[in-house]
Amino acid sequence: MPESITITDNRTGNSVEVPIVDGGVDANAWSKLLPGVWFFDPSFGATASTSSAITELDGDNGILRYRGYPIEQLAEHSTYLECAYLLHHGELPNKAQADAWEYDITHHTFIHEQLRKRFMEGFHYDAHPMGMFVSTLGALSTLYPEAKEIEDPAVRKQQIVRLIAKAPTIAACCYRFSQGLPFVYPDNALDFPTNFLNMMWRIGSDYEVDPVLARAMDVLFMLHADHEQNCGTTAMRVVGSSHADPYSSAAAAAAGLYGPRHGGANEQVVRMLTEIGSYDQVDDFIAGAKKGERRIMGFGHRVYKNYDPRAKIVKETAYKVFEITGKNPLLDIALKLEETALNDEYFVNRRLYPNVDFYSGLIYQAMGFPIEMFTVLFAIPRVAGWLAHWNELLEQDQRISRPRQIYTGEARRDYVPLTQRG
Ligand code: CMC
């Protein structure tokens, strides 16, 4: 007997039986029975906005899988570029496919000189790098007008490769500009994370990327590559559903990521730990959070009601990085905060656990990234996830996103000329 629910309209006595398919019920059945009655769900807490075969997230059990592969196995054995391939193609590449993919990405890392010199260097000297990143993604659409041909799979693939390849170059460029440093061109002899770190830090010829740090960067890139229908990805799908080009859609997704409740949280975690200042202040800080005066940044998640599996891997990676860079002095405060919160009824009852942002900022800071770059570091690999969802959306041929609203404003009234208003 297939599982189903029955909806009854108590005004008319009419009912409809709706099958439960893959854990969801079709909203069309609701609409047919109840025309003009909208399902009220402002933050999509109970709404599946799409079906998707890309990433599986089981928040109760702390499970994250890309195309079926557990994130723990990918973080241990894979690379970001391989994960990006997997997200897009649905399968891990064989050797020839992996080589071709890496070659393609590597050979699209350069950005148009005018984009850097005329557009990016036009920002105010203290522009936030994430603001620059968001705008530059959008500006790319002006360089690739053919990207509008979103119905052509070959054109789509070309833009996907371009965006994945150019994201780290743009990110490094944002940083170098903010420091007044000359731009470092991509180096095709280097792998993806090493090339990024080289573009970030090279001054003159005496810089060598530490392989442990390059691997840590790659692991962080893998962990951030996709996370199903979060705020940024939903923005990508909503804007993409209007058939906007992928650069404009990715700019919208990046803008969603920028907020402190989403990808901006990694920046806020380090600010929060710095504000706490010392080990002995942790209890007071937690007491304030329990009174609702503040939130513990890097804690809590809409979907995870268990330890975020990414946070575990980030924490392990932090120790490897600190062996090279020296320990981040904020680590002890973070560990005490985590331990205290995990044993406190307030956090236990609400099932609030550290999320991916809790420890990542400590790694970024130890590696020398300024706080303002943290969300950009989240965005670089998330580009792969956004684009996988964008491509899936177009393959699904979904209708334009257009939710309804419950109108709560004034009823009809007549216009009053200014001279007659009290
Ligand atoms: N610190 C203290 N209390 C919290 C926190 C927190 N970080 N997060 C949630 N709560 C409380 C909240 O006050 C509420 O309590 P009550 O039921 O008494 O009103 C309860 O827990 C449920 O919170 P909510 O706001 O309904 O949860 P949400 O699903 O709407 O919000 C969240 C999820 C991630 C926005 C939120 O947990 C938060 O603001 N966390 C801090 C910001 C953060 O770390 N964001 C990164 C998310 S992971 C990376 C990403 O995917 O972007």
List the helices and strands and how they pair.
Blueprint: E1 4-8, E2 15-19, H1 27-33, E3 55-58, E4 63-66, E5 69-70, H2 71-77, H3 80-89, H4 95-106, H5 113-119, H6 129-143, H7 153-179, H8 192-201, H9 211-224, H10 231-240, H11 246-258, H12 265-276, H13 282-290, H14 309-325, H15 331-342, H16 345-349, H17 357-366, H18 374-396
Antiparallel strand pairs: 1-2, 3-4, 4-5
Helix pairs in contact: 2-9, 3-9, 3-18, 6-7, 6-11, 7-8, 7-18, 8-9, 9-14, 9-18, 10-11, 10-18, 11-18, 12-17, 14-17
This protein binds carboxymethyl coenzyme *A (CMC).
Provide the helix percentage: 40-55%
Into how many domains do the coordinates divide? Answer: 3
CATH superfamily of the largest domain: Citrate Synthase, domain 1
Low-confidence stretches: none
Overall mean pLDDT:
95
The 3D shape can be described as globular
Give the class from helix and strand content and strand pairing. mainly alpha
- CATH architecture tag of the largest domain: Orthogonal Bundle
Radius of gyration: 24 Å
How far apart the termini lie comes to 66 Å
> Reading side by side through the largest sheet, how are the strands ordered?
3-4-5
CATH topology of the largest domain: Citrate Synthase, domain 1
Helix count equals 18
Order of helices and strands: EEHEEEHHHHHHHHHHHHHHHHH
Question: Count of DSSP E strands?
Answer: 5
Q: Approximately what portion of the residues adopt beta-strand conformation?
A: under 5%
- Top CATH class of the largest domain: Mainly Alpha
Sheet of most strands: 3 strands, antiparallel
Ligands: carboxymethyl coenzyme *A
